[in-house]
Amino acid sequence: MTGSPSHGRAVLPFVRALGAAGHDVVVACPPDVAPVLDGAPARVEPVLATMASAAEHLGPVVERLGGAPALARLSPTELTTAMLPTLFAGPQVTGSARTLLGLVDVHGKPDLVLRDGGETAGFLVAEHLGVPCVSAPSGAGNVLGPDVVAAALSERRRELGFAEPGDAAALHRWGRLDCMPAAFSLAAPGMAAARAFRQDDEVVRGEVLPGWVAALPAGRPLVVAGLGTAMPMMAGRGGRRAPVDPAAALRTVAAAVSRLDAEVVLATGGLPVDDLDLPAHVHTAAWVPQPLLLQCADLFLTHGGYNGVREAVRHGVPLAVLPQFGDQEHNARRVAELGLGEHCPPDPDGVAEACARLLDGSTRTGVRAAQRAMLALPPVGDAVGALEDLAAGRVAALTP
């Protein structure tokens, strides 16, 4: 796994299912993702490169694009496309692949590699060893098409001394996993079709709603708002090479929800809010049990990460998406196209207006249709049999 802890949470249900079925599961991940795996039936190796180390290689990309002034003129989609090859298949992947080969020496050759959708070192090692490799659900996995990283992966193979395959672009030759129904997939055009399973409804075991949430007025709509986990981590690194300003994004969200006629639970991720003049109906917390809270919410105002979108759909909650970076701009467009919510403009007035429209129930029908389709999917536990068939060679690839 790579990326932020949210990537770990997307893979965790599959790790649990495989471990519960008696398989020996070894999880390689960055140190800051390892705590997500606490208690999972797996051996955790916190040895892979972090996303911060990937960002260290973005300097040449910025220079090639014309420096900071040129970056400011790019659309979020153009900026993301320019950064993706380095973030997910840059020089840091060579070191991670060598680390994984070292783990193979310790733990033995795997029968199958399950990687998060933005992790490519595991793909290269699986390809080199001749074992199947499947991408688990993740936001990066929905936009990281083979053509985006083909050239970068060829460079990594040369550095590693790996043979170039006949089809260097076949990043998903063994298939993909997803937790969104096919009719409501967030995948970009041209991505390989995925085998979909219903997400685990309790990622963190034993969660309960805080008492203060249970005591909120029941006669008013409940809005959940938040920025996810990656943006607060950017602030914790002092904003070095961060694609957005987390504090500015939080101020936009806070200003927007302050104008709503609803009770609002605003998850800050630990970012300071002391300087914000918030009305009494906006209740802040550094962290909330989001999947649990969404079960009783009327609207989710989100940055548009994959986990948050699928959690909202799982509980039939409309989405107001204020994208910030990465796959989020793409996800926001897909949410609007699929009738699951609105793609918000980047200003408090526009966000507040979108939220007010959604609270009127204009998209409830579309979200309910997606929820029913998701509930009709087989549970995550059924993925074990599909992966066993792939590992044993009974099928050549996962198909929908």
UniProtKB/TrEMBL annotation:
Top-rank taxon, per record: Bacteria
Family matches, as SUPFAM superfamilies: UDP-Glycosyltransferase/glycogen phosphorylase (SSF53756)
Keywords: Transferase
Cited CDD domains: GT1_Gtf-like
Limits of the Erythromycin biosynthesis protein CIII-like C-terminal domain: 253-387
Protein name in the entry: Glycosyltransferase
